[in-house]
Fold:
Amino acid sequence: MAWMIFIINIFKKVKHMKNKVLRTSISKVNELQFRTGIAQLRSLVFRDDNTATNKEKFPWAPFKAMVQKEISDHFRNWRFIILFVLISLACLGTLFATLADGMKAITADGSGNNFFFLNLFTKSNGTLPPFFGFVGFLGPLFGISLGFDAISSEQQRGTLSRIMAQPIPRDSILNAKFLAGIIVISVMFFTLSFLVLGSGLIAIGIPPTAEEFMRIMVYTVLSIVYVSFWLNLAILFSVRFKQSATSALLGIAAWLFCTIFYPLIASMIIKAYEPSQFASPRAIYFYEKLKFYLGQFMPNELFDGITSAILVPSIRSLGPLSMEQLQGAIPSSLPLGQSIMLVWPQFTGLLSLTLLCFLLSYVVFMKREIRSRG
Amino acid sequence: MAVKSIDITGLTKRYGEHIAVNNLDLSIDKGEIFGLLGPNGAGKSTTILMLLGLTEVDAGCVKVCGIDSGRYPLEVKRKVGYLPEDVGFYNDYSGLQNLMYVARLNNIPEEEAKERALEILQEVGLEDVKDNKVATYSRGMRQRLGLADVLIKNPEVIILDEPTLGLDPEGVKKFLQLIVRLSRKKGMTVLFSSHHLHQIQQVCDRVGIFVKGKMLAEGKISSLAEQLFSKNTFTLEGAISTAVQDAAEPLLSIKELVQKIKQIKGVAQVELNNNQFVIESQKDVTVELSRLVVQSGYGLNFLSKKEYGLDDIYYQYFQEGQAHEK
Structure:
């Protein structure tokens, strides 16, 4: 639990700092008060205007209360604690596996890349998968476990109709659940990334370059987007199905389908189109393209593309490249901006999948009749 | 004329082919306690959901405190406290925390909310257990916490959906007294639904009997009785005996007897079943009836006059509801 207390302390400090900032800004506020006085006078004259805007005004305080409650529920939940321990153990395990054998795994690289810190995330000595592999594998499980009973458990406990009877917009419930999930995921992923960075720093003794640090941050943000896709999918299932168990199973089924069955199916389809040794370049090109695009449907494939391009700067394309395109290329690594450009389509695809899930749960939830239970 | 607390006109709700609420008109004055009485599945809960804008209205108009709840559900929810049927709480939170959460959702300032929550918990008699987790609460305590939950936002109208369900008789009594006391104290309008007539009768100013999505009768309980009595006031139950020892064959066959009974002035309906009969009439025909039976050569095993109680009002309307359905 030490890390939790640590995080809480950090939050407290941030809050404290904020207070200080607030105090210093009070003097500025005093200056502004004169202006607000005028504004009030004006609002007395143009009364209709003001009341209209008041009606439209979104109640932030209740929304904040909801998000706070959701977050504290997540942190207190055993499910979250178990998963967090599991993922951190996996990550630390891979870290030690990577750093064992005198960092052979990191340094043994013929292509002359000097990104030691990135190698910390992507390389391993073979006993365990690398860090990013674990995150890609367990991240979805984490997202699903945070979201699968978001709405259905409230319904089963009979609290949903009680909350719905309060003067809050209906979508606030969904938004609060989603936002709380994202905050929890972000806290966890940044914690993990920093833990790996910190222990790497101790082990290697070389500080990461700015570029490496930025790449790791970008990677962390993108993995948050990836996990939030699974969170959204799980929330969608929890809105649609009344039994939490059903939505959990469906979430896991979707995850298994993406990671295990879809690649199988895709490879079967690809096999059928496999060109012969003497096929025309056009046919080979088509085959490669097909192989690439079939992969792009699945969120986990998208995420794999993203991680490899961000964490391995020497990757210059995610799809097939012709010899023509490679001609004259200097075999060096890409700058961060170019790597991001490279994964932009994948990133957009992932984001749109996330939004699609959110939209669907919105549509299902907004029209629904909320009865007390069941 | 003051704004009605609840004003429903021509309200209709359909679920596919099934009509849950059929062209309902209802208005409730401010400060009134109104009981919505009906069997399960009559559409009481659906009506309440529409009052709060929790489900869409197919036709008609619902106004609560003069606000259209279909269009401005948030405004309505600010003024209405709703206790759902079989309410649930966050079990790992204490009663006080549950209340505070609802207060926060209502945008009540923290200090004020705490003060009010403690006060209300005292009123509903939960101040001793306010820091216990809700999981440890009994059914009655949960229900009282539900009432506190409704009251914390200081509503103008409170709507209780089957609030007494699952409480023991003593608990029901106390709970109802609590509702009446608090609502009278604060001048709130109360709408509560139940399928227990006696509970409604104890506390309500006015009752609506609601069957198959229709309001069959509405008014004070005494006037409900009058509405019913204007048709067939009296019911006589009795049994005739054919095996009279010293008499000869009866003069009339049973069919003829029934015909004769029907001819008695005021008799509206005669049902004869295995020598047991039920007669409904507009006036007391006991004397004429007994004379007729005996003169026809039958014996009279028993004859009893049935008084109409409130239960009978209820059943009468239920039967009518079913008859309408057929």
